[in-house]
Amino acid sequence: MYKSRKFYFNLTTLLPLVLSALVSGCSPTEAPQATSTTPISGSENKNQAAASTVTKPNLPLTVAPENPDPTINNQASRYIKSLGAKQFHGVWIQSEDKLLANQQGTVPLPAASITKVATSLVTLQTFGPEHRFITQIGTTGEIKDGVLQGDLVFQGDQDPFFVWEEAMAVGNVLNKMGIKQVAGDLVIVDKFYMNYKTNPEIAGKLLKTALNSKTWNAEATTLHRALPPGTPKPQVIISGSVKALDAPPDNIKPLVRHSSFPIAELLKKMNKYSNNYMAEMLANSVGGAKVVAQKAAETVGVPTKEIQLVNGSGLSPQNKISPRAATALFRAIENYLKPYNMTIADVFAVVGEDKGILSPRPLPQLAVVKSGSLNNVSALAGALPTKNQGTVWFAIMNSGGNFEAFRKQQEIFLNSAVREWGSVATSPGELIASPQRKDKTSTSEIVMR
Questions:
Q1: Are 355 and 273 in contact (CB under 8 A)?
Q2: Residues 297 and 395 grouped into a single domain
Q3: Which of 23, 42, 77, 265 has its Cβ near the most Cβ atoms within 10 Å?
Q4: Residue 406 domain-assigned?
Q5: What is the pLDDT of residues 281-310, one digit of tens each?
Q6: Has residue 16 been placed in a domain?
């Protein structure tokens, strides 16, 4: 039998602090329906089976590229002309079943962080929104007088959001178990990542620091202050060194099982702050950029040339997506999430409601969007709630100039469109995040025999 106790830690309020130090956004200074594939992670997760059996609604993701609305298409054309050379820009706008504007909408253009929309779709298809990455913590020894007489083993499962606070939570659980010191080494096994570092030795050294508050740096100390009042400071002193192994020791005994935030919450964190590190890790977890591009194109029913990716984050000018495909990716995610009573607002930022990199931008309120910026590229895609057109799905791709100027023009164009179509005071149901997701967080559970 196992003794099992769960400890819950809500890190939602910490995201601005956690992610503000990251390279956010893409800038170095910033038809066929969704079908589940076999999960490739080694974690134990009952929700994976559910994800593979859910029936997806057969809704169209895009519309024919011909015969857009003449008035709206002319407005989009004038917008494109105002930016300069037409070949560097594209616009696609559609309602549920009607094409409103198509300006180079089927041409693959530099996508920047719109790439993360494709990564989000394929990650959901692969794992399901409830999947959690499991980090197993074990030992090769016994606990005696507060000392773990053996090694402390962390067996990773490619959790992309195991950061300072997660390690602190695990350290506090170890302290609750009576472990104050480890006589042996800190052993890192499999795909354990810490603070977005995937190298096991580097991740292990960061973990060793996090487990012992006496060795914290300024960043860790600051983040701890933002935790709920009274949160203990862990003190697990590891006497030995950090070692990386290809497989766990044969004599390992389980201590703690740490479950990550669910996939949906991980994607929302990634997209709100356009976290490149998380995007790369998640893309790699599903097979890499080529797999993401191939599966995304197959799902939305566009030619493969309309989704060209060399990485999962968008940090390359070689990442290209057509405006039509970008719009269809959002629609595919919407379709995929419906059986789970979830919406795209559960994995993307809602303007005016969610804090993140979009917070400073004067975009239409209640829009659910993803932006992308890289050098001379600025892109924006998502959904606009309107009175007269209903939910309007759009993608704007700009390149070949100043991305800050492109942003301003995007904002002017979209706000003007919403004024014409009528703004709404409250979002339609399809653009409201599920309230049941608010309490989803990571957990640490004692599983010591």
A1: no
A2: yes
A3: 265
A4: yes
A5: 999 999 999 999 999 999 999 999 999 999
A6: no
